[in-house]
Design goal:
- It is found in: Cell membrane.
- The longest helix is centred in the first third of the chain and has 32 residues, at 60-91.
- The protein is mainly alpha-helical and 466 residues long.
- It is 74% helix and 0% strand.
- The radius of gyration is 23 Å and the shape is globular.
- The chain has a single domain (21-296, 303-455), classed as MFS general substrate transporter like domains (Growth Hormone, Chain: A).
- α1 (21-48) packs antiparallel against α9 and α16 (341-363) packs antiparallel against α21.
Length: 466
């Protein structure tokens, strides 16, 4: 006699395989490395070659200001990029949006590498305009890149390790800087100044295409993050994410924006601005001799003394400083997981304010003082930048996290980064080479960020799947 069998238990529906730790780390770090490599290539060229190549009819001082004004165009574009990519990141998913942002940034950078200069017949006026357009496209791409990479890392992190995982996309900044500037140093050593000005500066922009292919290959293998998958499963996708952000999370949006201001000001002080100061002739005689060698007119009335380092020497010093940036970016992750984001950032931001006040005496204390300033500044940069990939996204719910973190990160770039190189150059020129007002500018930015951190709350223990 056959006995009836009990019904077999229903198996749970299969779930998509999770991203492995190695894949998460590689995809988030490789992508931002590529983005920052592209961005630094432009920043270095804006300091060294673009003033003469794209604004040849202006005075040397105005050439530099015009070059950095174009540099700032990307920061105006970044909020627009954050709206575009944030919208699709919160509606379609993190993976597809990350691939698109990388393509936009990579194509724009490659085209800068083949752009005719203003001395090319027929391009005297159109070349600067095209440069502005491509710089705008770079900003669009970067506007969506950072937040997606941060979410990729932190939404796949084990419990209690979000800040640690968040440091991996942040490492793209120092790694991209080192790769870009090592390439510029190599080109400067191997090429004559005439060769570098004629075509050597194009090489980093053209080589970025290789890095983009690598980044795309890694990112196309990703699975969607668990947090966004939960949003899809619960049908919580916002039809217009930015509208939901302003309706439900306007206060975190404002506080997250202001919390990044000091980080941005410090970042561009340590990179784009100090590159100019470090490589500008220290006295009028040296500047006159350099102008004669280059076949240019010298105007003593507009000359502002810098530190007088050779370009390759100062780039090497910057690279040494950036090593500390990378080390302390990694160090900041476990500290933020243990101490909390707010407590760590309050201490580091106070340190940034003090650094601004001692910048001038350090930078005028000889090579030892300059190196000490670079190491201290980049150490503070790592400690403030590292926790941001966890801190900013944690301020927003999963259904608007891409948009909220992207908009706040990039609005901070408009406030903190876009005017910083231009304003610092102007302050430095007005003070005849002194950095007192430049340091005070950084200290004021630190006060703004301290206020936002004091008002805001701790985010370490938020429910990241909510």
């Amino acid at each position: 006699m056959n006995t009836p069998h009990a019904p077999a238990p229903t198996s749970p529906p299969p779930t998509a395989p999770a991203n492995t730790r190695g894949r998460v780390i590689t995809a988030s770090m490789v992508g931002t490395t590529i983005e920052f490599f592209d961005f630094y290539a432009y920043a270095t060229a804006a300091s060294l070659v673009f003033p003469a190549l794209f604004f040849p009819t202006q005075t040397p001082a105005n050439q530099l200001l015009s070059s950095f004004a174009v540099f700032g165009v990307a920061f105006v574009a970044r909020p627009l990029g954050s709206l575009i990519f944030g919208h699709y990141g919160d509606r379609v998913g993190r993976k597809a949006t990350l691939v698109a942002s990388l393509l936009v940034m990579g194509i724009a950078t490659f085209l800068i590498g083949v752009l005719p200069t203003a001395s090319t017949p027929g391009f005297s006026f159109i070349a600067p305009a095209i440069l502005v357009l491509l710089r705008f496209c770079q900003g669009i791409g970067l506007g969506g890149e950072w937040s997606g990479a941060a979410l990729l890392a932190t939404e796949n992190a084990p419990p209690g390790k979000r800040a640690l995982y968040g440091t991996f996309p942040q490492l793209g900044a120092p790694v991209g800087f080192i790769l870009s500037n090592l390439l510029f140093v190599l080109l400067s050593v191997q090429l004559t100044p005439e060769q570098f000005m004629a075509w050597g500066w194009r090489v980093p922009f053209l080589l970025s295409s290789v890095l983009v292919v690598v980044g795309l290959w890694v990112r196309l293998k990703l699975m969607e993050s668990p947090a966004f998958q939960k949003v899809l499963d619960e049908q919580r996708v916002a039809s217009v994410p930015i509208a939901r952000v302003f309706r439900t999370a306007w206060k975190p949006l404002v506080l997250a924006t202001l919390a990044m201001v000091a980080t941005y000001v410090l970042f561009y002080l340590m990179t784009a601005f100090l590159m100019v100061v470090g490589t500008t002739a220290a006295d009028e005689a040296s500047a006159r001799a350099a102008a004669e060698t280059a076949g240019k007119d010298f105007n003593a009335a507009t000359f502002v003394p810098g530190l007088g380092y050779e370009r390759t020497d100062f780039l090497t010093m910057l690279i040494i400083g950036v090593v500390f940036f990378g080390i302390f970016t990694v160090v900041s992750g476990p500290l933020a997981d243990r101490l909390g984001r707010k407590r760590l950032l309050l201490a580091v931001t106070a340190g940034i304010g003090v650094f601004g006040l001692v910048l001038d005496p350090l930078m005028h204390a000889g090579t030892a003082g300059v190196m000490a300033a670079l190491i201290l500044g980049f150490t503070l940069m790592g400690m403030t930048f590292g926790p941001m990939a966890a801190f900013l996204p944690e301020m927003f719910k999963a259904d608007v996290r891409y948009t909220g973190s992207a908009v706040s990160y990039n609005m901070a770039s408009v406030i903190g980064a876009a005017p910083a190189p231009y304003a610092m150059i102007w302050l430095w020129q007005q003070q005849g080479g002194s950095l007192l007002l430049v340091g005070s500018y950084l200290a004021v930015a630190a006060v703004v960020t301290l206020g936002a951190l004091v008002i805001g709350g701790e985010t370490k223990d938020v429910d990241y799947l909510a």
